[in-house]
Design brief:
Low-confidence stretches: 7-13, 297-324
Largest sheet: none
Mean pLDDT: 75
Number of strands: 0
């Protein structure tokens, strides 16, 4: 009896391990570093087609692009913003049908590859094998590949242009049809940030919903999503501060220095977003473990569910308890 109690206390001790320590272990077990490198590769090829679409969009609305980069100066280093700004101005000065066709195709293909990598990593974090129906999974990935870029573009426009975008849209309507007071514009000045954030959260919720085989309550996926957005904003600001004040990549890489900085930022972004799935999966796992000690009828075979895997094997979850 005493031995059984000691064993039970030992298991409880393992439950109290630091979340950071367990996430660090999962980083290596699930090979997040390699997957982040692959995601960075697809992100770099997704970025420039999306820049072309943004350039076409703001050009058609006759809106200046500079405010967008002014709003991003705390998140991205100045040299990266100059690179992106120069690329957009080049697109504006040399428009072509071929470039537009290129942007339309690759702004779907490479984001699809990004989504595929994220969803595959989420399934691994949740201890799931590859999707049983590849055609169904492909359809889900294509849906997410369309929703995510649209959400990013709309969120960026909301954050950058503020009341100006409302006034611009109203200019297309008959005069006097809709009137907006200064009070409403002042409210919108602050509400746009909340709406843009909610749109990003919505895009990530869609990715989780499509990546997993069963519906997930918001309370089980919001912690990781909110953590991702907070850590990403903070890390991007710190990275920008470091590059602007301490790093001298141009000395080592010359003219490629700016591109190297962009790659590092995209890699940092990839690691953070992939670890968001690990956060949600770990929180869910710890919740199930706690429930196991209070209600032994939750699972059929306790010895199967919580064994830590070998490096090349999936962690097993019984169908009865999966996503509960």
């Amino acid at each position: 009896m005493k031995a059984a109690d000691n064993k039970k206390h030992a298991k409880k001790g393992r439950l109290s391990q630091s979340l950071i320590v367990q996430l660090s272990v999962r980083y290596f077990i699930d090979d997040i570093g390699t997957r982040s490198a692959a995601l960075t590769y697809y992100l770099i090829f997704s970025l420039f087609p999306l820049m072309i679409l943004i350039s076409i969009l703001v050009g058609s609305l006759n809106i200046q692009i500079e405010p967008m980069f002014d709003a991003m100066h705390n998140v991205l280093p100045k040299s990266v913003l100059e690179l992106l700004s120069g690329y957009i101005h080049y697109v504006e000065e040399t428009p072509s049908t071929i470039m537009f066709t290129f942007a339309m195709f690759f702004s779907i293909y490479f984001p699809w590859r990004v989504v595929h990598e994220i969803m595959a990593t989420i399934r691994i974090a949740y201890e799931l094998p590859p999707a049983p129906s590849q055609f169904k999974q492909l359809f889900k990935e294509l849906v997410a590949a369309i929703i995510i870029p649209l959400s990013l573009i709309v969120s960026l426009i909301l954050i950058v242009f503020g009341p100006n975008i409302i006034l611009k849209l109203l200019s297309f309507l008959p005069a006097g049809l809709i009137t907006i007071s200064d009070t409403h514009l002042n409210i919108w000045e602050y509400a746009r940030f909340a709406i843009a954030g909610l749109m990003l959260v919505f895009a990530l919720v869609v990715v989780y919903e499509l990546a997993l085989d069963r519906h997930q309550p918001l309370r089980t996926i919001l912690p990781g999503i909110i953590a991702v957005l907070i850590v990403w904003l903070a890390s991007s600001a710190l990275f920008s501060f470091y590059v602007e004040n301490f790093a001298r990549y141009s000395v080592i890489y010359g003219t490629l220095g700016t591109f190297i900085i962009l790659l590092l930022w995209l890699y940092l972004t990839s690691v953070i977003f992939l670890m968001g799935g690990e956060v949600n999966a770990l929180i869910l796992k710890r919740r199930r473990r706690r429930a196991l000690y209070h209600n032994s009828s939750i699972v059929h075979d306790k010895s199967e569910v919580y064994e830590w895997p070998s490096h090349n094997s999936f962690r097993h979850i019984t169908d009865h308890e999966q996503y509960k």
